[in-house]
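Schema walk-through. Below, the input block comes first and the output block second. Nothing else is stored per chain. Lengths vary across the set, and this one has 350 residues.
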Amino acid sequence: MNAIFRSYAKAVAAAAMTGIVLGTTMPGALAQTILKYSPWLPPGYVLNGPVLKPWMAEIEKVTEGRVKVEWLPKAVGSAAAQFDVIRDGLADMSIILPGYTPGRFPLMEIGELPLLADDPAVLSPVFERIYEKHLEKLEPFKGTRLLTIWASTPTQIVTSKGIVQDVSELAGLKMRAPSNTAVEEMEKLGIVPVQKPVSEMYELASSGIVDGTFFPLSPIVDWKVDKILKYVTKVPGGMGQSVLAILVNQAKWDSIDEKDRQAIMAISGEKLSRQVGEEYAKGEIAARETLLAEGVKIEDASPQLRQQIKDALAPVDQAWIEKAKSKGLDDAAAVLDDFRAQLDAGSDGK
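--- output ---
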């Protein structure tokens, strides 16, 4: 029996030594960092399959397996709480939408302004560039590391009431506002804003709590409100858009080797923002076909309505400039001029 025991002990010791040797010669296998991603957007969200999941797989590839993203089965916390979730380490990575926490990220509201651009393939990377050039230095997301940021597809006037012909038809309508900037716009147009996360859109529309919202075409399909909100009035430049960012907990990011951090950033930043914008653009084309086939009416705003909206929303830019100055962006007006100039030139960095 003792001989058997001694043989067993030797085998265990040999196995342990093998593990030590393997651990020494293959440190990547033992040093793998898992980034737990908190998902709150719907499973069918336009970016999930074509952009986000391939990008996460690429992170593992470019770090040779040392960093891996784990897509959790459900979100940690609410959509509006994702910044705190990541900063406090309840999850390691998520997408945040600053507009869900009014007043907390005023600098980001430059990306929410109305009448900026029609094409998200241009808007998204230009906004990321503006952020890096002018806003990053003020550390708006302190406690986290930003991997990329973008402005989403410009929104349109989406209602259950009909195509809008005159601004007076908006007066008194209750509409879900996607951001603090949208609240300002709606109030100037006589709309009653209801500020709620997009995850509540179906309940708000189906119960009649709201008559509509400012939406691109894709979310009408994504959030299954196409049977309720059947009228889309398209305004050149859009009624605004949301800002979204991918953040990682700062301490978790700092624990990753510098070489791997550089590799991750090489596939993130403006490169990822450009992919996002291009996918949004594709999504709008596909959503338009789907909505028209389902009987949703989509029409361009009349010249009269365009001018009425432009006049009513003229003070919104100045309001952002004043807020940005109060947060330390002394050249806010010049930053906004730079942003609009790049968009007007159709500059997408190519």
